[in-house]
Automatic annotation (TrEMBL):
<dbReference type="GO" id="GO:0034440">
    <property type="term" value="P:lipid oxidation"/>
</dbReference>
<dbReference type="GO" id="GO:0005737">
    <property type="term" value="C:cytoplasm"/>
</dbReference>
<keyword id="KW-0223">Dioxygenase</keyword>
<feature type="domain" description="Lipoxygenase">
    <location>
        <begin position="124"/>
        <end position="602"/>
    </location>
</feature>
<protein>
    <submittedName>
        <fullName>Arachidonate 15-lipoxygenase B isoform X3</fullName>
    </submittedName>
</protein>
<feature type="binding site">
    <location>
        <position position="479"/>
    </location>
    <ligand>
        <name>Fe cation</name>
    </ligand>
</feature>
<dbReference type="GO" id="GO:0016702">
    <property type="term" value="F:oxidoreductase activity, acting on single donors with incorporation of molecular oxygen, incorporation of two atoms of oxygen"/>
</dbReference>
<dbReference type="InterPro" id="IPR001024">
    <property type="entry name" value="PLAT/LH2_dom"/>
</dbReference>
<feature type="binding site">
    <location>
        <position position="17"/>
    </location>
    <ligand>
        <name>Ca(2+) 1</name>
    </ligand>
</feature>
<feature type="domain" description="PLAT">
    <location>
        <begin position="2"/>
        <end position="124"/>
    </location>
</feature>
<feature type="site" description="Essential for stabilizing binding to COTL1">
    <location>
        <position position="109"/>
    </location>
</feature>
<comment type="similarity">
    <text>Belongs to the lipoxygenase family.</text>
</comment>
<dbReference type="GO" id="GO:0019369">
    <property type="term" value="P:arachidonate metabolic process"/>
</dbReference>
<dbReference type="InterPro" id="IPR013819">
    <property type="entry name" value="LipOase_C"/>
</dbReference>
<keyword id="KW-0408">Iron</keyword>
<dbReference type="InterPro" id="IPR001885">
    <property type="entry name" value="LipOase_mml"/>
</dbReference>
<keyword id="KW-0479">Metal-binding</keyword>
Length: 602
């Protein structure tokens, strides 16, 4: 018989401790031990505790391969059945009489009575498991995972997702923490109560004026939202949002004008000046296009009993010489030119031009929420997460208030799924394909490329590194870039309307302030969207910034050093971003590493 110590660490989260009884058994090259109770005077396994237990191993099991952790309910009178009690275990450590201590990372919840099978923390790929017991454990773990996390088609044409009907059915290990869940719902409740008390939440009519819309700032205000309110009508700010706004992934260099966008030199001369032409600027590479063609003939919603409208605009932009601003040159609100689809210009009447720009902003909202945000930053990361849970064991080293509604969003996702490619998700290739490598003031590109920061050809190690970088970037930095600023961009609703109540204009000279307001979303729809985007933009506690890994799955020095190097690199990027932002009238903060979540967390 041999005596040794077992050290156990319990998580610090609310409810992580347990009153249940815990024991372990050891599986070695010579067999498996009996259960070894971890028991002493007083309560064990309190939240945040690290505790030592001395146990006696009755027989030699040889080299230790696995540790089984068993949790049983405490004895209770029959008339008082024990309540379910979950326990979050961080790790076990065996301090044997001979040899180095063995750490068994866990970082899992164990609900009710049951057991977990844990491996010593050295990372191993499948071919490195030489012992049959380890090979069998790896296979069994994956079989359990695949049964627990199975695929389903939520909507035909969408990416597959987890086969669960409600959040309540989710495994505790992939749910929000208690604190995060409580913060999220308290935040939502407070927002609804505030806007209901102000009489806005249930008001289905139009806003009385642009000035009245300013009341939404009393709900919550940010420096970015204040800046947007002051500058939303300016052409330079309108254009800048294609670079550093919510949807910085559509703008591309224009090498030739589309045949269905018949812009002429005379139309754009007031902006370009008399010394140049469209052809000359195309050859110089100073023209850019944002095309929302994917919105053509999309299904629209019915809100407050009224049908809503959509458009599929094209926007031509001009990069002024030197480091001058990016400016809009022309906007066409459909994909079919003709007398009922005029090309709107900066030289048009103020309200004609403002209305055309607002239709483009509405198109940006629709494409952003359905594709850039929902599909690319949520549905695809769920695929990555599901594949990881089903294929990689622990030891592996690696809509309510919108103009389109669920049917329109669904159709957009189906259309985009037929076009989406792997390179679209790889930032360096995406930037190159869109021809925006050198456009100035593109902070999404500049900050994103620093965070991407990995070498890039899936049959080589380099290809694997590139693929994993894409997954990590998509689930962290890209999601932050397209999610964190939703409230900032939308709280001044005319900057990013979620729907339009009147059809796109078919002629010029008819737009008026009252017609502009009548086109915008109603009061209650505005409130619904702003509350939703406020909740989705702000992390509800329990944050884990990029590069922060409280779950210590790796025990070797090499990966620990890699993590430290990565953290130092992120700190350098953050310092550079914050220094640059001090010189900007509107700081670009969404890709500052401490503000980026490790994963899609909301």
């Amino acid at each position: 018989m041999a005596k040794f110590r077992v050290r156990v660490s319990t998580g610090e989260a609310c409810g992580a401790g347990t009153w249940d009884k815990v024991s372990v058994s050891l599986v070695g090259t010579e067999g498996e031990s009996a259960l070894l109770p971890l028991d002493r005077l007083g309560r064990e396994f309190s939240a945040g505790a690290e505790e030592d237990f001395e146990v006696t191993l009755p027989q030699d099991v040889g080299q230790v391969l696995l540790l089984r952790a068993h949790k049983t309910l405490p004895a209770q009178p029959l008339l008082c059945p024990p309540a379910p009690d979950a326990w979050f275990c961080r790790w076990f450590q065996l301090e044997l009489p001979q040899g180095a201590a063995l750490r068994f990372p866990c970082y899992q919840w164990l609900e009710g009575a049951g057991h977990l099978v844990l491996r010593e923390g050295t990372a191993k790929v499948s071919w490195a498991d030489r012992h049959p017991t380890l090979q069998q454990q790896r296979q069994k773990e994956l079989e359990v995972r695949r049964a627990m996390y199975s695929w389903k088609n939520y909507i035909q044409g969408w990416p597959q997702c987890l086969d669960q009907m409600t959040v309540k059915e989710l495994d505790l290990n992939i749910k929000y923490s208690v604190v995060k869940n409580a913060n999220f719902y308290l935040k939502a409740k407070s927002a609804f109560i505030e806007l209901k008390f102000k009489g806005l939440l249930d008001r289905t009519g139009l806003w009385r004026s642009l000035r009245e819309m300013r009341r939404m700032f009393n709900f919550h205000r940010t420096p970015a939202a204040e800046y947007i309110y002051e500058h939303w009508q300016e052409d330079a700010f309108f254009a800048s949002q294609f670079l550093n706004g919510l949807n910085p992934v559509l703008i591309r260099r224009c090498h030739s004008l589309p045949e269905n966008f018949p812009v002429t030199d005379a139309m754009v001369a007031p902006v370009l000046g008399p010394e140049t032409t469209l052809q000359a600027e195309l050859e110089r590479g100073s023209l850019f296009l944002v095309d929302h063609a994917i919105l053509s003939d999309i299904h629209t919603n019915v809100l407050n009993g009224k049908p809503q409208f959509s458009a599929a605009p094209m926007t031509l932009l001009y990069q002024c010489p030197g480091h001058g601003p990016l400016l809009p040159l022309a906007i066409q609100l459909s994909q079919t030119p003709g007398p009922n689809s005029p090309i709107f210009l900066p030289s048009d009447d103020k309200w004609d031009w403002l209305l055309a720009k607002t239709w483009v902003r509405y198109a940006e909202f629709s494409v952003h929420e359905a594709l850039t945000h929902l599909l690319h930053a949520h549905l695809l990361p769920e695929v990555f997460a599901m594949a990881t849970l089903r294929q990689l064991p622990h030891c592996h080293p690696l809509f309510k208030s919108t103009g389109l509604g669920i049917e329109g969003f669904s159709e957009l996702i189906k259309r985009n799924m037929t076009q989406l490619s792997y390179t679209d998700l790889c930032l360096p290739e995406d930037i190159q394909a869109r021809g925006v490598e050198d456009i100035p003031g593109y902070y999404y590109r500049d900050d994103g490329m620093q965070i991407w920061g990995m070498p890039s050809s899936l049959d080589t190690r380099e290809a694997l590194v590139k693929y994993l970088t894409m997954v990590i970037f998509t689930c962290s930095a890209r999601h932050a870039a397209v999610s964190a600023g939703q409230f900032d961009s939308c709280v001044w609703m005319p900057n990013l309307p979620s729907t339009m109540q009147l059809p796109p204009p078919t002629s010029k000279g008819k737009a008026r302030p009252e017609g502009f307001i009548a086109t915008l979303p109603s009061v209650n729809v505005t409130c619904d969207v702003i509350i939703t985007l406020w909740m989705l933009s702000k992390e509800p506690g329990d944050r884990r910034p990029l590069g922060t890994y409280p779950d210590e799955h790796f025990i070797e020095e090499a990966p620990k050093q890699s993590i430290a190097t990565f953290q130092n690199h992120l700190a350098q990027i953050s310092r550079a971003i914050r220094e640059r932002n001090q010189t900007l009238p509107l700081p670009y903060t969404y890709l500052d590493p401490p503000l980026i979540e490790n994963s899609v967390s909301i």
